[in-house]
Amino acid sequence: MNMPGPVYSDAIRKGVQTRFAGLNHNEGAGDGELYRMKNLCSDRFPLLATREKRRLYRKLTKPNGLFAWEKLCWVDGTEFWYDGEQKGTVTDSAKSFAAINGYIIIAPDMKYYNVFTDTFGSLGESVSHSVTFKDGTLYGSPAVQNTIKASGVDWSQYFKVGDGITISGCEGTGNNLSAVIREISGDELHFYEYSFTNGSENNVTIERSIPVLKYMLENENRLWGCNDTTIYCSKLGDPFNFFVYDGLDTDGFAVDSGSAGVYTGAISYLGYPTFFKERKIYKVYGSVPSNFELLGSATLGLAEGSAQSLAVAGEALLYLNRNGICMFTGGIPQPIGRAFGLERYRNAAAGSDGLKYYVSMEDSAGDWHLYVYDTQRGMWHEEDGTRATHFAYSEGNLYYLNTDGEIMITGNIQEAPESEEEEDFDWYAEFTDFTDDSPNKKGISKIQIRLDLDEGAQCTVKLMMDSTGEWITPQDGTIEEDGKRSYYLAIIPQRADHYRIRLEGTGGCRVYSIAKEYYVGSELKSQPGRQ
Predict the structure, then answer these.
(1) Are 329 and 391 found together in one domain?
(2) pLDDT per residue as tens digits for the range 324-356
């Protein structure tokens, strides 16, 4: 906030700024708002302050994904790690994750790690063998045309009761079909009566298939997900089965919206599985498959390539739309990216510490930016050019994985695990044009800045007159002393229509106030061609 001061007898005026808001990269920004910045934060608002130092937790060779469920996990090349230990192998590609009942699901491989049993495997299963379709038993009673026998195969190693399986490769019996396993007895699978035509077949494949999901979420003890066109959910509490349709409340479910465009992301929000296209948002209502209903609204959807930008902060869901960052609270999304001006972004990834939204995204020139939105204060701040691919919140700390393979801890770090603190970083704060509420020319003669520097830190004050592009450093404009105090900087008066102030430095800094002494010229002197 830029507060005009009194006019002294010598026509010198004094203006004081004591409240420093966030980013406003617009030509119409008011006196003293921040037009550009680097490595600032809102933690000490209304002060202008540098962010806290990050910590390097781990360096990966080939960063493919980061996730947290109780503990942190990641994919380094083809290796899946959980809590610092390798647990399994996946393909070498970018991953997405979900967690349900102690299972961490890894897509698009559709593999899992069970944190309770310390087991790793595939959700799907497939067995090829010579089999006989025959009469058998069911629940202790004789049954007709209900059994598959494969000598030497222990079916319990591959399947469990309740699995939905598909049979393929049958030539003579016509038993290429889908069914649900009702009992397993050694080398025999038992189904309902009259499921098959009796006979023997060679090279039969029995498979528990899993849809390949691009985006996944857990909601009400079901694993939900989608590919480009179709939404799926698993059986209740069973991420190993999607294609079981017994007419029960525990069944799986699948639906296609039928609208144009592909799904661009998914998340569980306010208790609903929520799926996005670029111009639509869909929610699945209902509690069981018999009353599941997919309802969509044409609105500001999720930009393609920015599925990782979905994150909840301050109880609101934030994400990147083609037109900027949006905030969704269950009704109509509201754009909150006005601070970025006319710039448009893409390929965003984001995370939240609960109240702040951290988003890394690419601008139209191909440069990357890490922005932070404070939901309590409604302000944006820019940190640096970090290109993050995944974020994860674990044990009170927010982590991100960048394209250099670094897993970093950021924000207000609490009880940090063993990690390495970063060095002092550069920062700057460039204010928008000051006009001092006057269209006339004016001259600035003195700046008084009250700040607090960490030991070894420094701050330099610079000015630019009339958008010349030349920054002028006043005498004694570089401040290196540590401690909280005020500094007077004398300026050689220069008349200008407007001017800018820039603070830059290294190390931690808190600015409490900036006061300016200036004088305002007459209307005659501000006319074109007059001096």
Answers:
(1) yes
(2) 999 999 999 999 999 999 999 999 999 999 999
- List Cα–Cα distances, 449 to 411, 459, 463, in angstroms: 27, 11, 13
402: region left, alpha or beta (phi > 0 left; psi from -120 to 50 alpha): beta
Q: What is the pLDDT of residues 40-74, one digit of tens each?
A: 999 999 999 999 999 999 999 999 999 999 899 99
Q: Which amino acid is at 483?
A: G
Q: What is the mean pLDDT of residues 111-122?
A: 98
Write out the residue range of the structural domain in which residue 359 sits: 304-412
Q: Are residues 115 and 228 in the same domain?
A: yes
Residue 42, sorted as left (phi over 0), alpha (psi -120 to 50) or beta, turns out to be alpha
122 Cα distance to chain centroid = 26
Instruction: Please check whether residues 435 and 499 belong to one and the same domain.
Output: yes
Q: Total structural domains in the chain?
A: 4
Query: Helices in 350-432 by DSSP H: which ranges?
Result: none
State the Cα–Cα distance between residues 403 and 63, nearest whole angstrom.
7
DSSP 421-466: EPPP-EEEEEE--B-TT-SS-EEEEEEEEEEEE-TT-EEEEEEEET
To 5 degrees, how large is the angle CA 297–CA 257–CA 298? Answer: 15
Whether 348 is in a domain gets the answer: yes
- Same domain? For 40 and 95 the reply is no
Sequence-separated (6 or more) residues with CB below 8 Å from residue 505:
426, 427, 428, 453, 457, 458, 459, 460
Residue 397 lies in a domain: yes
Residue pair 358/391 in contact by the 8 Å Cβ criterion: yes
